[in-house]
Amino acid sequence: MYHAFFGLHKEPFSMTPDPTFLYMTAKHREALAGLLFAVTSRKGFLVLTGEAGTGKTTLLSRLMRSMPAERVHFSYILNPTLSPAEFLEMVLIDFGFGNIPDSKSQRLMRLHQFLLTGHREGRTLVLIVDEAQKLTPELLEEIRLLTNFETAEQKLLQIILAGQTELTELLNRTELRQLKQRIAVRVGVEPLAPSEIVQYMKSRWSRAGSGSDLPFSNAAIKLIATHSRGIPRLINSICDHALMNAFASDVRLIDEKHILEVATDLQLSLNGNGNGYHAGAPGASISRAASRAFTEPPPVIAKMPSAADAAIDCPTTSFKTLERYMPTPQKGPRWAIRLRLTRG
């Protein structure tokens, strides 16, 4: 709604995990380097953990875009709340299988042959399970057994479990000690430090196509840091609603009162133990912004830049050297048609 008002090509604080907007802190770079190293070295079992909203899914999207499709084939499970039979079926479907047999033994045999063929052809097969903290011990045991697909030298299937901090507690359970022993690499991401938040906001603002300065006062940014606790998802939510408020009020600079209004709208408040936030439904800001959108001239078709991650070759297994090969945005044209709002 506020794109034209602030001279933007796309939403700077979208809630979707767009890897072109990934802000690489030192911890994110370390995590991505670790994942790249482990996958390319075929280490087998990998774990990525972090607080909700810290960018794990975006980091995984960046990982997949960073690796050439002809060399690495991913199966990505977004919702792991499945039975063991459904999980194996989903893995096969996402690897591109058709006519999946009903028998578990036949499914495992077909998966094994698929992994062996990929190994002979020099391809790396990777299974990513997001929201892994929701996995049951029964399903985790099934996943552990998939690591038995191996040659004398290497694992045939690389498995990445990505989840919130509860995943660490889950993996520490006594009955899962066999699985824990097989974890080759653990990496994690953390909330942004206060000094990183303004750089994060500036990075997203610039990548959204604006040539102007960030329209948030220093005091507003400090309040954003306080209410978000450095969690990127909450920063995005606060900034997006603040921009809608500013658009609705025809204001070009967002200050403390706008952030306080958004915090009230989103019901951002410390919970009982002081360790977390809860967010409720937004208040009147969306309605005000929507009402104004119907009175504004619709935006025209706009050409916007995109960022395409370059595939990378990693000639080394050194984490520090791998950072030199991190994918960097490359400019390229992309056309986007903005929908026109019409009154009924």
Key words describing this protein structure:
single chain; 344 residues; alpha/beta; 5-stranded parallel β-sheet; two-stranded antiparallel sheet; elongated; disordered C terminus
Low-confidence stretches: 270-284, 298-344
Q: What share of the residues does DSSP label as strand, in percent? A: 15-25%
Radius of gyration using CA atoms only: 22 Å
Number of strands: 9
Q: How much helical structure, as a percent, in the residues? A: 40-55%
Report strand order across the widest sheet: 2-3-4-1-5
Q: Describe the sheet with the most strands.
A: 5 strands, parallel
Query: What structural class do the secondary elements suggest?
Result: alpha/beta
Distance between the ends:
18 Å
Shape: elongated
Overall residue-averaged pLDDT value: 80
Q: How many helix segments?
A: 14
* H-E string: HHEHEHHEHEHHEHHHHEEHEHE
